[in-house]
């Protein structure tokens, strides 16, 4: 089966400074993380860090998901971390 993204949920992890989202290959969940540096549109103030990063993720969702599909096609991993180099 191919990787797809039927669930649009995502969350910000302030400890690792990454946005988490999940892809699915059939019934299997495939976890992804996007480094904040990859979200170039994010301009966060201390009061709105999470919202700014999630909005930047949403704005780049198509590119991020394309990068996730490409990373997934190169081999199976427990978790995938996408960087700015992967998305651009």
From TrEMBL:
UniProt-listed InterPro entries = DUF1488
**A Pfam family matched in the record:** DUF1488
Q: Which domain of life is it from?
A: Bacteria
Under which name does UniProt file this protein?
DUF1488 domain-containing protein
List the source organism.
Phyllobacterium zundukense
């Amino acid at each position: 089966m191919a990787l797809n993204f039927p669930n649009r949920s995502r969350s910000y992890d302030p400890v690792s400074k990454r946005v988490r989202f999940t892809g699915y290959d059939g019934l299997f969940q495939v976890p992804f993380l996007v480094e904040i540096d990859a979200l170039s549109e994010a301009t966060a103030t201390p009061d709105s860090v999470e919202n700014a990063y999630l909005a930047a993720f949403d704005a780049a969702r198509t590119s991020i998901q394309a990068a996730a599909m490409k990373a997934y096609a190169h081999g199976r991993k427990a978790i995938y971390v996408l960087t700015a180099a992967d998305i651009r």
